[in-house]
Amino acid sequence: MSLWLTLGLAVATAEAPSAADQALLKEIEAASANAPSAATTLPTPGNATSTPTTSMGSTAPSNIYNPAMSLNGLFLASGNASAGHPQQSNASLAIQELELQFVANVDPYFAANLILALPNGDGIALEEGYLTPSAQPLGLQARVGKIKAPLGRENALHTHALPFIDKSLVGTAMFGDEGLAEVGAELSYLFPFPWYSVLYAAVMSAENPAVFASGRTYDASGYGSLRNVFDLSDDATLELGLSSAVGNNAATEHNEIYGAHAVFKWRPARQARERELVLVAEGLFATRPNLSPPAGDKRSVGGAYGYAQWRLGQQWYTAARFDYLGFPNEARGISRRGSAILVFAPSEFSSVRTQLSAGKQPGVQPLLYEAFLQLNFTLGAHPAHAY
Amino acid sequence: MTPRLLLFAASLLLEILVPEMAFAKLIVVTTTEDPAALTRAIGGERVEVTALAKGYQDPHFLDAKPSYMVLLHKADLVELIGLELEAGYLGALLSGARNDALMPGRQGYLDLSQTIQPLEVANGADRAQGDIHPNGNPHYWLDPENGRLMARAIAARLVALDPDGKATYNGNLAAFETALTAKQADWEQRMASLRGAPIVTYHRSWSYFAARYGLTVVGFVEPKPGVPPAPMHTLELIKLIEAQKVKVILMEAFYDRRVPDLIAQKTPVHVAAVPNSVGGEEQVHTYLDLFETIVTTLERQSRN
Fold first, then answer.
1. CB B120 within 8 A of CB B208
2. Which residue segments constitute the domains of chain B, with CATH numbers given?
């Protein structure tokens, strides 16, 4: 804390503050709920900020119809070590991912959402890209294109929005690092109930190598899911969801995936910036996943994770997660992992996240320890994340 | 199953499946409580109004709760403050509500910022300046004359959506304006002693109020809009308050009082924590109550 104070003083003034000012600053720090920021200058009332704009004259092409654009950047430092095998430890510093998003109405009939990812900072991959008809009659909504399937809680999240730096063990095992995102058509229906209840159904291609990559060009896959969210009070909600996906795996065997999730959120309206509790549990089960090594006929596998997230203040929150993968055929082996994360988010557009994990893999005796330090930032007009 | 249970089950099913049959009223959803209060004053018994953000909540930080989508799905009209106040959630809510009638450009979508003259319009936007609103400061409902303009826009839209209620809406609007004019003269008189006085506010949310009553905002508790108080900034603010002989820190009741209270211990300034929306305190039921509470608090603090 005193380092922040010293840096702040050094930036703000060329001359050292008086002893009285130093004492007063300490008192202010003690009274302040948040860590000090580098901002030191009084804003001028009524003087709106302006950024110079460039005029290209009336003949220049207009950019007024450009889509809302945003960029999410993830810089990641990571390291791991195996207990008892210090020689096997690794460390790396990398651009984890850059993600570009473009959102706009195409015309009066369609809206478009395009998300391009640059994993490791190079090479462009289409993460999601779909059209949504503007008309939404009778509570129906359609999407056509490449869609991250709304299966459970985690799969539809983009990397920068994950609650932890890495995905859950079961999510990665079932859907791969990038999750289940296929080209297809989705229809969803909002039931006319007093609570929020939406049913999703979709037909998709079958090219995800982790799930439905049969190699047969005529194969298709599909999913259905039901999401219910109940207001328990003005401050608390409970979400309950069921999901299922079907298709053929890489061995052209019929694979079925089933999932269930529950989310409890408490965010007191009078302290929405200061306090929040989120409890999440999700389980997934697959009958014929593309896991290796295969375990004879007993190939079905399932797993679950749960985490608790607690907001410590306007700019800080922490969370702890437990992962499990291996149910019900323990012959394949069981993976377990515990993770803890501490996040400093100066604003909704940037955060620094530190995570420590300890995991046990099948057939490996010592624990694997992992440490991550991630810088997460957003430029531009990023649309609101789903609740 | 007894007949009474059967009757209960049937009525519950009816309530769930066809709720619109139970109401002939216009269903209005507003993003904050102030347009809701104005709509209730004008619509009377012909409207059913729900506000998403409660008066005691910070309207900048509202979750896009799915239950709000359910409300919007059934609504005939959504009224918003605009000027990016709802940028963090309203787009997601309208998309999830699946109600074509509420899409921008339709009669069911009323952006009330289009009815007023915004202050602090910027030529561009730079997030290094904090949570600024490049199209203008969105806290315009804190000028009662803007409230008058909002009320007129709401009445006109209610008439367009429900022509049968035209006489009711216009009559209620006239009554509201008469009451507002009378109260406004009273508030002007009571605020006259503060005209020209320097004040500090917590957030950049009192520009319209200050402009109406001639107050001069000389500083903010936040170093930049939306940025929590920082020690160096607070120290500079204390010196500014002493130098300019500021008497009042005006702040919304939902902000943390610790830093303003500390400043009040170090300087002769008084903290006036007031509701900035209808419903911000228990006794603030109407738009007129809101200004009565703010003016009364400022009067009291300035006398101390």
1. no
2. 3-184 (3.40.50.1980), 194-303 (3.40.50.1980)
